[in-house]
Amino acid sequence: MATMNTRYPYKYFTVRFPIERPYVAHVEINRADKLNTFIEAMWLEMRHVFDQLSSDSSVRAIVLTGAGNRAFSAGLDVKQASTELFSDKGGSDAARKSFHIRRYIHQFQECLTAIERCEKPVICAMHGFSYGFAIDISAAADIRLCTRDVQFSVKEVDIGMAADIGVLSRLPKVVGNIGWVKEVALSARIFGAEEALQVGFVNTVYDTKQAAVEGSLELASLIAQKSPVAVLGTKELLNYSRDHSIQEGLRYTAVWNSGAIQTGDVRTALMSGLEKRIPKFEKL
């Protein structure tokens, strides 16, 4: 059973809080009749969802799924996106139009980055069609799981453009195999669950969507039992170290923990371990 929260009254995203899983939020993309394809209002709303969850002290881990049985998301609603991209905004002058497009892309990128920027770990459970923007979304998440019947594709070259919202920057760092990323990004070929598991794009493959969602919620529950200070710090330090040298990462970690390690959560965790009980931590 899950409860709805009136503080999350969104149109394209359903946010639930499973009663049996404290501190876990389940976010569902809610445009199943259109295979959860994204229009501008959706990615703008997505930013608000994850910014709000990031600062919500009653949330410690997040699961992201897509409504319906056919698709996590089939990517962008191409018709709507092309209308915006080729509109008359910016006028006929090429320079001014390019500035308009650049601002539009930057805004779009920021909406996606809200997932990565979110202080809480985000687990993405994908099923069915997971094309284009779905790969961007999942690459910005912390952990990726999928169903056996999933179909992945970095689809943008099939619509005559280079992907520009984040996948070309993030996917190589997720899988650590630039040759494979170039292959799937240049060809837009479909790849499945086993290949995604083999290259490290996903952590686990489930037989059904229900099993994938349940597995994601179970993992989120496990994370939510840990110190929120430790979990937030671990995500922050991993993301920072990914984008910097080892020496820079070590220095940042030392500065970060010089403050964070003073938390009472360390004592709480140690004592609960000795007493063989699940620790209870204050909200953050």
What does this structure look like?
- By secondary structure, the chain is an alpha/beta fold.
- It folds into 2 domains: 13-225, 2-enoyl-CoA Hydratase, Chain A, domain 1 (Alpha-Beta Complex); 228-275, Lyase 2-enoyl-coa Hydratase, Chain  A, domain 2, CATH 1.10.12.10.
- Helices cover 48% and strands 15% of the residues.
- Strand 3 (24-29), helix 1 and strand 4 (61-66) form a beta-alpha-beta unit.
- Helix 4 (133-140) packs across helix 5.
- This is Enoyl-CoA hydratase/isomerase family protein.
- Pathway: Lipid metabolism; fatty acid beta-oxidation.
> Which stretches are poorly predicted, pLDDT < 50 over at least 5 residues?
none
Q: In total, how many domains does the architecture comprise?
A: 2
- Give the DSSP E fraction (strand runs of 2 or more residues): 15-25%
The class by helix and strand makeup works out as alpha/beta
CATH domain class name of the largest domain: Alpha Beta
End-to-end distance, in Å?
A: 25 Å
Proportion in helices: 40-55%
The pLDDT mean sits at: 94
Can you summarize the main beta sheet? 7 strands, mixed
Gross geometry: globular
Q: Do you know the CATH topology of the largest domain? A: 2-enoyl-CoA Hydratase, Chain A, domain 1
Rg is: 20 Å
User: What is the N-to-C order of secondary-structure elements (H for helix, E for strand)?
Assistant: EEEHEEHHEEHEEHHHEHHHH
CATH superfamily of the largest domain: 2-enoyl-CoA Hydratase, Chain A, domain 1
Number of helices: 11
* Number of beta-strand segments: 10
Question: What CATH architecture label of the largest domain applies?
Answer: Alpha-Beta Complex
InterPro entries: ClpP/crotonase-like_dom_sf, Ech1-like, Enoyl-CoA_hydra/iso, Enoyl-CoA_hydra_C
Protein name: Enoyl-CoA hydratase/isomerase family protein
Subcellular location: Peroxisome
GO biological process, one term: fatty acid beta-oxidation
